[in-house]
Design a protein that fits this description.
The chain has helices spanning 17-26, 33-38, 43-48, 54-63, 68-87, 100-112. It has six helices and no strands.
């Protein structure tokens, strides 16, 4: 994703560490930015939180120096994004990285297949 620009919610599982930190600012958890950067928390890691054991969750909270209430807020916001994606409530926007001809294809495919886990791919040229 681009610096300073909010990451696309549909793609949260491919967010970089920087994207996660921008999202933390959006959900008023920006005080954890440095801890997330130091621990390399990216979108794939956030996606895997739902499969963590209690011990792993406690380890994550300790590593990031999170308050329990803030961890719950983080989980609620992740769930909100996932549910909105599955229900098709997220706005489909063209990817910042795609050329205009690819953007039309992306948006129409995403609108037809809103329940797909992978909504976009970054094409390397």
């Amino acid at each position: 994703m681009s610096k300073g620009r909010a990451p696309e919610p549909l793609d949260f599982f491919i967010w970089t560490v920087e994207d996660v930190c921008l999202w933390l600012e959006e959900i008023n958890l920006g005080s954890y930015r440095q801890a997330f950067e130091e621990n390399g928390v990216n979108g794939e890691y956030l996606e895997s939180l739902s499969m963590f054991t209690t011990e792993q969750i406690l380890h994550f909270i300790r590593r990031c120096h999170m308050k329990w209430g803030d961890f719950i807020t983080l989980c609620k916001e992740l769930r909100r994004i996932k549910v909105a994606c599955l229900k098709g409530e997220q706005e489909v926007r063209k990817p910042w990285w795609a050329r205009s001809c690819l953007s039309v294809v992306f948006v129409s495919m995403a609108q037809r297949n809103r329940q797909s886990r992978v909504v976009s791919l970054k094409l390397e040229t």
